[in-house]
Amino acid sequence: MHREIQSFVRRKGKMSTGQKRAYEQLKEEFCIPFEDKTLDLKKHFGTEEIVLEIGFGMGDATWQIAKSQPDRGFLAIEVHKPGVGKLLARIESEEIQNIHIVEYDAKKVVNHMLSFNDLAGVHIFFPDPWPKKKHHKRRIIQEPFLSEVLDRLKPKGYLYVVTDWEPYAVHIQEVLQANQSIRNVYDGYADSQTWRPETAFERKGLDKNHNIYEFYYLKK
Ligand SMILES: C[S@@+](CC[C@H](N)C(=O)[O-])C[C@H]1O[C@@H](n2cnc3c(N)ncnc32)[C@H](O)[C@@H]1O
User: Fold this and answer.
1) Buried residues in 126-151 as b, exposed as e (16+ CB within 10 A)
2) Is 59 inside any structural domain?
3) Per the confidence metrics, is the pTM higher than 0.85?
4) Are strands 119-125 and 153-163 parallel, antiparallel or unpaired?
5) Residue at 21 is within a domain
6) 27 part of a folded domain
7) Is the beta carbon of 52 within 6 A of some atom in ligand 1?
8) CA 192, 198, 202 angle in degrees (round to 5)?
9) Residue 204: pLDDT above 60?
């Protein structure tokens, strides 16, 4: 049987009591279950300006960006349950209305639930670098998934990717440059966008003195 290569392993770590409570009480309202059916994003968010985030981790950047951009909707995907619980708790404490979460494999969500030319932007912050050569096939930023994501972007929509892992940065640059449907807004690496807060994994990278590599491309 053909088994699809996954870009994640479920991280260990239990939910805290607060995360569990938030998960139980708020998932109905803010989580969208995976379905093999196209999502009507406008119906969920009440706007056509939707940004997708793949792998939000604990959601620190997610809620801050959503709060600072209230006219946009943020569809946030993650498989790490404690992260989902934590983001739900933030949605509650910060009184945020413009985030919806899908707790499922982003590859499947993009493929089955998102329509072509529908997204204003895509965020992929600190994707798992999979440093060992035998694991490179697990990296989420590669074809054909990249093209599937870009198909969902509207013309002039943006793709914003950030990593602290230099060999992955080189790989990301290669695959983005090879894709004819997008153009780099910068010469080479992008400037950090002023509205992007630091993420948890970024902090870990900075603590190890890693450089941060950013990519900001627009769909043609
Ligand atoms: C290195 S962490 C970065 C998290 C966060 N963006 C940050 O910067 O702190 C990558 C995250 O992507 C998630 N992830 C990887 N592949 C995924 C997929 N196919 N679908 C959903 N989440 C995924 C992992 O569970 C993990 O939490």
Assistant:
1) bbbbbeeeeeeebbbbbeebbeebbb
2) yes
3) yes
4) parallel
5) no
6) no
7) no
8) 95
9) yes
Mean pLDDT, residues 43-67: 97
C-alpha–C-alpha distance, residues 154 and 139, integer Å: 24
What pLDDT does 1 receive? 53
Residue 14, phi then psi, degrees to nearest 5: -85, 160
Q: pLDDT (tens digit, 9 = 90+) per residue, 31-47?
A: 999 999 999 999 999 99
Which tokens hold the place of 173? 């640059």
Please indicate whether residue 56, judged by its CB atom, sits closer than 6 Å to ligand 1. Answer: yes
Residue 12 lies in a domain: no
The C-alpha atoms of residue 34 and residue 77 are separated, in whole angstroms, by 11
Give the residue, out of 9, 63, 80, with the most ligand 1 atoms within 8 A of its beta carbon, to mutate for a pocket test: 80
Q: Which domain holds residue 67?
A: 36-219
C-alpha span between 168 and 132 (Å, rounded): 11
Only one residue has tokens 């003195």, namely 209
Q: What's the number of domains the chain is made of?
A: 1
pLDDT of res. 212? 98
Ligand 1 centroid vs 54 CA: distance in angstroms?
7
Mean pLDDT (whole number) for 143-169: 98
Please report, for residues 75, 135, 168, the alpha-carbon distance to residue 206 in angstroms, rounded to integers and kept in the order given: 27, 24, 16
Mean pLDDT of the chain: 96
Amino acid present at 31: C
| Run of H or E residues at 102 | strand 99-102
Instruction: Find the CATH number of the domain harbouring 127.
Output: 3.40.50.150
Give the separation between CA 130 and CA 110, rounded to whole angstroms.
21
- For the chain, give the number of residues: 220
